[in-house]
């Protein structure tokens, strides 16, 4: 198309120079093209081992080409690279566990995404999301007032399930400042209610901020790190303003990775640490159970398996806590193989889910690996502590006829927990 | 010619190897101080050492365990590659003769067999490059060149010891020459993975440990 802007090689090179680190240089120098990374990648496995899907090749065809040509590429080339960087890699980082040199293909793909983003070459939906973050501070264009109203409504409605349920907004000096994924107020307000029920039952001193409540960071994957930093900063700011002891992230993987591990770098925090300790619902619920702050009527009886989200169990430290929580809640927990930090990506991450209908087919093809993993466990219930994984596994369920039900920890705990008598709503009989 | 190759060239090669590698390491280190804050912020010596160790051991990492064929080939290749030149009887004798340094050596028969193992492993790795599609797609001409540079000293060493193909003196000349070429190439080609391995593994070990997970 002739009306398109020419490619600005300088902007691309600026990104490359910013990311020109000793480790990137070492990676470019050491790769012995041994191919060990291939079979670690679920894209490669799900696409009949087609060599074009091997990780090193994907890095080479994107960042490699940009470096080699010093940013002087055509729009058509960028479009090709876009299909590789966004539709053939979710930046799950499994390949770096399999490479003898620990080369991080995901980081290279991320740099390539940043380069392309400067030229507005990026799946459209992700760019729209960047805009929504800029205008509303969240990916779903929800005004803060509406969010607060949703919380109030959920507290009120939840009183049928837990007497005097409260959702405190902007309470100062709380132990926990809970932040959510804006999908919750938009489509699943029940999620906020259930999280509130668990915290209330555990006697937690907690709050939600009226601004800075969105933690899902999709700009991390659109390549717009300026916006990514802005979103993280708003969460840190809220916690500091309210003097909360900890930030707790809802059952969402991207949000945890962004706030705890990447965010400190986007926002230039000293020592690469978040200014307020960041924890996650999986850890929080795990501790409630372990400390006996939540008691169960009984454990979950059916066979159930657990999806380890990459951003929690590989790029985050929650693999063991997730497993332990499963054991505390369920009688018959069957792990997938491989699991924990070696888990396969479900293909919902890295921005895939919000990339929308155009990419659904790719997502269903590459999700085959996860579908088979689930099938092999024989479980009909899958516990999924991440919103992106949840959407993906629900889609896989339909595509591959898995006949499963996806659950979250808060949902499961609300179903199983034994409320103390004074929290039981009027009229509820003891069992 | 013979005098040059056997004398100064050998010294030049060793000097290039040592100073070239040092220069690469120091300049990367300096650059990393400036650009890799993330590494120094979270440097974890235990995880770095664990990560290096696990990958130096055959079957020490999950990746090695899942690829037993390649693991055997790679380790046979690298172990012989290091042991044979260091302890070949011929090398020890040359060193003793020229410098008066006593150096332990392997019996000729053992060095001989290890050379054959090395050549077989090298052949395996080369064939793998061409027949395994996911390896072929990332193989470049320079991978083949580097392969030749590494294999030639062994091939010529074997041939000259067994007085094959060319007259032993010419073959020996080729042997010394190709050996020097390999040493010179180490700092400046993919062969630099000899030392970069330790740097990249220390990084990834620490990086994953920071996130509470492992890379082996
Ligand atoms: S495993 Fe590592 S060294 Fe081997 S091809 Fe992949 S990136 Fe390169
Ligand atoms: S990061 Fe994940 S999706 Fe991307 S190439 Fe590596 S294994 Fe494949």
Describe this structure in a few short sentences.
The complex is a heterodimer of chains A (431) and B (216). Chain A is of the alpha/beta class and 431 residues long.
Q: Could you describe the 3D structure shown?
A:
The complex is a heterodimer of chains A (431) and B (216). By secondary structure, chain A is an alpha/beta fold. Chain A is 50% helix and 7% strand. Chain A has a 4-stranded parallel β-sheet. Chain A is globular, with a radius of gyration of 22 Å. The termini of chain A are far apart. Helix content of chain B is 80%, strand content 0%. Chain B has 11 helices and no strands. At the A-B interface, helix 2, helix 4 and helix 6 of A face helix 1, helix 2, helix 4, helix 8 and helix 11 of B. The complex binds iron/sulfur cluster (2 copies).
Share of helical residues of chain B: over 70%
Number of strands of chain B: 0
The share of residues in helices of chain A is: 40-55%
Strand fraction of chain B equals under 5%
Q: What's the story with the biggest beta sheet of chain B? A: none
Instruction: Round the Cα radius of gyration of chain B to an integer and report it.
Output: 20 Å
Strand order of the largest sheet of chain A: 2-1-3-4
Shape of chain B: globular
Cα-to-Cα separation, first versus last residue of chain B: 49 Å
Low-pLDDT ranges of chain A: none
What is the arithmetic mean of pLDDT of chain B?
94
Termini separation of chain A (Å)?
69 Å
The DSSP helix count of chain A reads: 21
What is the molecular shape of chain A? globular
* Global mean pLDDT of chain A: 96
Count of strand segments of chain A: 8
Biggest interface reads: A-B, 51 and 50 residues
What does the oligomeric state look like here? heterodimer
What is the rounded Rg of chain A?
Answer: 22 Å
């Amino acid at each position: 198309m002739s009306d398109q802007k020419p490619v600005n090689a300088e902007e691309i090179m600026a990104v490359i120079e910013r990311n020109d680190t000793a480790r990137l240089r070492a990676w470019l120098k050491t790769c012995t093209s041994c191919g060990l990374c291939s079979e670690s990648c679920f894209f490669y496995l799900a696409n009949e081992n087609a060599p074009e899907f091997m990780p090193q090749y994907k890095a080479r065809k994107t960042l490699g080409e940009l470096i080699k040509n010093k940013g002087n590429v055509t729009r058509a080339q960028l479009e090709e690279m876009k299909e590789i960087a966004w539709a053939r890699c979710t930046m799950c980082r499994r390949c770096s566990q399999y490479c003898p040199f620990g080369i991080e293909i995901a980081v290279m793909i991320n740099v390539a995404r940043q380069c392309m983003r400067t030229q507005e070459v990026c799946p459209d939906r992700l760019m729209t999301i960047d805009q929504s973050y800029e205008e509303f501070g969240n990916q779903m264009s929800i005004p803060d007032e509406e969010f607060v109203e949703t919380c109030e409504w959920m507290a009120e409605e939840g009183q049928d399930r837990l007497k005097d349920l409260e959702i405190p907004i902007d309470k100062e000096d709380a132990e926990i400042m809970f932040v959510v994924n804006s999908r919750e107020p938009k489509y699943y307000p029940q999620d906020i209610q259930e999280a509130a029920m668990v915290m209330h039952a555990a006697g937690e001193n907690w709050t939600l901020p009226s601004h800075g409540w969105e933690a899902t960071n999709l700009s991390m994957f659109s390549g717009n790190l300026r916006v990514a930093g802005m979103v993280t900063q708003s969460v840190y700011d809220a916690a500091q303003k309210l003097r909360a002891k900890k930030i707790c992230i809802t059952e969402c993987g991207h949000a945890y990775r962004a706030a705890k591990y990447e965010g400190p770098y986007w926002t230039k925090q000293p020592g690469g640490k978040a200014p307020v300790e960041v924890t996650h619902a999986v850890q929080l619920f795990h501790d409630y159970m372990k400390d006996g702050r939540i008691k169960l009527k009984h454990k979950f009886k059916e066979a159930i398996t657990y999806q380890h989200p990459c951003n929690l169990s590989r790029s985050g430290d929650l693999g063991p806590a997730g497993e332990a929580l499963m054991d505390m809640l369920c009688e018959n927990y069957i792990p997938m193989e491989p699991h924990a930090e070696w888990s396969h990506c479900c293909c919902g991450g890295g921005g895939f889910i919000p990339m929308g209908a155009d990419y659904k087919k790719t997502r269903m093809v590459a999700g085959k690996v996860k579908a088979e993993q689930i099938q092999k466990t024989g479980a009909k219930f899958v516990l999924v502590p991440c919103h992106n994984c949840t959407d993906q596994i629900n889609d896989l369920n339909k595509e591959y006829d898995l006949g499963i039900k996806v659950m979250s920890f808060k949902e499961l705990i609300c179903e199983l927990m034994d409320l103390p008598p004074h929290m039981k709503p009027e009229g509820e009989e003891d069992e | 010619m013979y005098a040059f190759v056997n004398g100064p060239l050998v010294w030049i090669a060793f000097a290039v190897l040592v100073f070239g590698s040092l220069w690469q390491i120091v300049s990367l280190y300096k650059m990393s101080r400036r650009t890799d804050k993330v590494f120094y912020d979270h440097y974890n010596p235990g995880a770095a050492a664990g990560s290096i160790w696990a990958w130096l051991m055959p079957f020490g990492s999950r990746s090695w365990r899942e690829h037993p064929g390649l693991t055997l080939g790679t380790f046979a290749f690298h172990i012989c590659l290091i042991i044979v030149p260091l302890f070949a009887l011929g090398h020890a004798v040359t060193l003793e003769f020229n410098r008066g340094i006593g150096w332990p050596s392997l019996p000729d028969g053992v060095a001989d067999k290890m050379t054959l193992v090395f050549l077989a492993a090298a052949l395996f790795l080369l064939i793998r490059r061409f027949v395994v599609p996911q390896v072929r797609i990332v193989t470049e001409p320079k991978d083949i060149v580097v392969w030749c540079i590494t294999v030639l000293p062994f091939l010529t060493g074997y041939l000259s010891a067994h007085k094959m193909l060319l007259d032993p003196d010419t073959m020996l000349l080729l042997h010394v020459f190709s050996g020097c070429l390999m040493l010179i190439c180490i700092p400046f080609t993919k062969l630099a993975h000899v030392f970069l391995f330790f740097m990249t593994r220390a990084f990834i070990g620490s990086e994953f440990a920071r996130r509470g997970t492992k890379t082996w």
